[in-house]
Design brief:
- It is a single chain.
- The protein is 67% helix and 4% strand.
- It has 37 helices and seven strands.
- It is globular.
- Helix 11 packs across helix 21.
- Strand 6 (715-718) and strand 7 (723-727) form a beta hairpin.
Amino acid sequence: MQINISKQARFLVYVLTAQAVAGITLVLDIPFARQVSGFLFLTFIPGLILLRILKLERSNITETILFSAGLSIAFLMFIGFLINELGSSNFISEPLSTEPLAIIINIIIVLMCILAYLTNKEDFNIMDSKSLRIFPLVLPYLALPLLGVIGVMLVSAFKNNLLLLLIIIIISILFLLSPFSPKFSSYYPFVIASIASTLLLTTFLTSNYIHGYDIHLEYYISNVTKNISYWNRSLGLDVYYRSSLTLYTYNSMLSITVLPTVFSNILNMEQTWVFKIIYPLIFSFVPLGLYQLFQRQWGKKVAFLSVLFFMSNVVFFDFRGNFKQGIAELFYVLLFLVLLKKDMNHLTKWIILTCFGFALVVSHYTINYMFLFLIFSTWLCGKIFVKNKDKKINSLIVVFFFTLTFLWYSYIVIGPFDRLLLVFKQTFQNLLEEFFYPQSRGEAVLTAVGIVSSPSFLHNIGRILYDITVGFILIGFITLLAQRKKEGLDSEYFLLTSLTMGFQLMSVIIPNLSIFYYMGRMYRITLFFLSPLFILGGRTFFENMFKILPLKKARTHTLKRRESYSLILILTVLMAFFLFQTGFVYEITGDPVPPSISLSKYRMGDYTRLDLGLIDENDFFGATWLSKYVNVENTKIYSDTKARRQVLTSSMINRNDSITSLSNTTVFTSRSYIYLSQYNTMTGILIYDTRPTINIRYNVSEIYIFNSTMVLNNKIYSNGACEIHYYAP
């Protein structure tokens, strides 16, 4: 009897030990230890306890890790929201500060541990003997992200990217060798996690400052929440009613308000490093989730190759879009992983779906809408085309997720719903007029089809490789339609893949859709189901090529040998594609227009860095000075549009209320500050419209105050690059 009690209590001992370590490092504020122990505790322990309560901790080790991380992050957002509501009722002052968060989270975890102890009498052992044997062998893969971080530091300090180039070569070798060893399949999850975290960290840590596009506004909103230790859901509501949807809509997402505040305060990390370190590590679970999803349908080898293709795309690792999207992507893939899972208790499945569904709704409205579109369309098509009555995506699930979305977007926040209406209005208002206007598809689509010219010969080759991968996906989809029964795919998975392909084609055909959703974001999400089609299409293409070759030897090859040759050729295409997408080829050849920030930042021109969303150090210092020494809330600030949307926003200046974009028609009628970035002062050019298809630029000399002696008298700040001028009429 004593042995059974000891085994039953083992889980409780492990969790309380982890909680004690995290608590001690928090109270004593031990550098590094607080961040590491706190991150591991917050990211895995709450979810693992929930799995223990639901008796799911003994499932596949990869799924256990994925579900633990997903449930933990959903837990942090939900508990953070509830604690915040206590603050709104004046029950807790500054509810999202460190003390209330730490106390309430730890109390809830202790209560959950007691519940797990009472409900689950089984021994706790999530790693079997096989997992324990291979664990020491995977440690070298875990060193790859660390080498990537060191490589980024070498580029920043000494402009030496040899280590980063070596890492890309190592990853390429893994691409080539991994699929050929049957024993290596046990290592696939570790290889995927290692490659994903390496690619993401080397991109995010390239700069000491936030870099990207939407990221700057997300950073601003997250810092507003942290600074007051409270999520003010009304932030931006005033400008929302003046037809400015963005600020209020972004503020409605807990993924960039509550979640980073919880991590920042518990780990004692600035928001900058939460976004640059913690978030990329969370994003690296997405490829792991895709591997689990793919292997159920396609087998381990195809799943592994499909995930390698997904990670090879620049839209995965050069993640300059937004943070809330990455968090939502994790729940997006986890939801489909649960929805399509057969061997799960009905009640348990609903509990997990509720957790992940809530997390998706509060993480990113666009991806949530795409999820709703897919499950509704799958259910509808299943009713028409699928005879099997025992469907996993049924009307109850569809109604549940639509209701969950409606409740949050209608009663808690209203911005995302109005944002959806705006999409429909802008997309279909001028549909017939712009249908035959190529520019309405956006630069990304035009570049992919060759309408927009590439900047160099090597970029032309890179585009051809990209077009080949798209061609393989199309061939794979046609093959899938013709051989669905042969491939043995689940009927609902097949519908999801087909609908995703249809959605991707719509974004190319329908004007403005790809511009509004951003083609890179759209393509990234559709690859969640389309990546295996690249492998299927490549296999179909090369195997048929061997059949029609005039060589007698090629015709007499056995089927197994043709499959091996096809695999080698697919890997060759994949490795070449990866080397181009990472910028490796452009860097070693000295291409004049390098696309990789991590490899080539040191030799990029000012505008190239600016166009890629990088913040110059001089611009950051100037913007910080302006934010610190000027009453920005009651003063008019002028800048070009790039600075307004990027460095000034992430320097905590409200771009909606305080900043106006400069043009040659700007009239200064009150006391004003004019911010000129390094790009403005060095080139004499102001960027007014950032859309590449419009590309409006003005000369600084066209602004009338810079065409007089006032410019000499009114310069109040300069660091040799960035300048700030004061104007008083």
